[in-house]
Amino acid sequence: MAKKRKSKQRKKRNGHYCWCCDHFLPNERFGGKGHRLHLCKSCQRLPQEERDFRSERSNLYRCVTWDGIIPKKRRKQFNRFLQHADPKIRKIAQQLQREDQLERTLLNRDEGEFDEFSGNVNLDFDIAASDWRWFDDDERAPYR
């Protein structure tokens, strides 16, 4: 009889993860030191320059959040990619930096619009004495 899985447990995946091609592959696709290196056979056959490029690209994308913003904590690490020796990595880093600046300007504009909108709304309300005449004595009791 099969064991029931608890609802909060995560499902186990079959095989191993290859960081180079970013896939979970069956064990048969990994050979020799591939299990330990987390590289499938097809990625092991790639030239070393291509594997280095993919590694640096994944490190670069780790500096950026899902929203396309580069947090302050990762800016120093990200700036290293702007002076990278590989022109392809530099180009990707410059593109990500432009997207970051665009996202930040959009967020600042949206915050400004929100502040402008919320400035017109008076959140401090006070019921004037004349408004109490519409309430019965039973309804006024909790406010006395």
Topology summary:
Blueprint: E1 16-18, E2 23-25, H1 34-37, H2 41-44, H3 48-61, H4 75-82, H5 87-120, H6 137-140
Antiparallel strand pairs: 1-2
Helix pairs in contact: 3-5, 4-5
Write structural notes for this entry.
With 144 residues, the protein is mainly alpha-helical. The protein has helices spanning 34-37, 41-44, 48-61, 75-82, 87-120, 137-140, and strands at residues 16-18, 23-25. Strands 1-2 form a two-stranded antiparallel ribbon. Helix 3 (48-61) runs parallel beside helix 5 and helix 4 (75-82) crosses helix 5. The longest helix has 34 residues, at 87-120. The model has no long low-confidence stretch (mean pLDDT 81).
Task: Provide keyphrases for this structure.
mainly alpha, single chain, 144 residues, two-stranded antiparallel ribbon
Summary of the model, kept short:
With 144 residues, the chain is mostly helical. 47% of the residues lie in helices and 4% in strands.
What is the strand tally?
2
Strand order of the largest sheet: 1-2
User: What low-confidence regions span 5 or more consecutive residues with pLDDT below 50?
Assistant: none
The number of helical runs is: 6
Shape: flat
Largest sheet: 2 strands, antiparallel
Give the mean pLDDT: 81
Cα radius of gyration in angstroms: 28 Å
The helix fraction, in percent, is 40-55%
Strand content: under 5%
Instruction: Give the helices and strands as they follow along the chain.
Output: EEHHHHHH
First CA to last CA: what distance?
A: 66 Å
Secondary-structure-based class equals mainly alpha
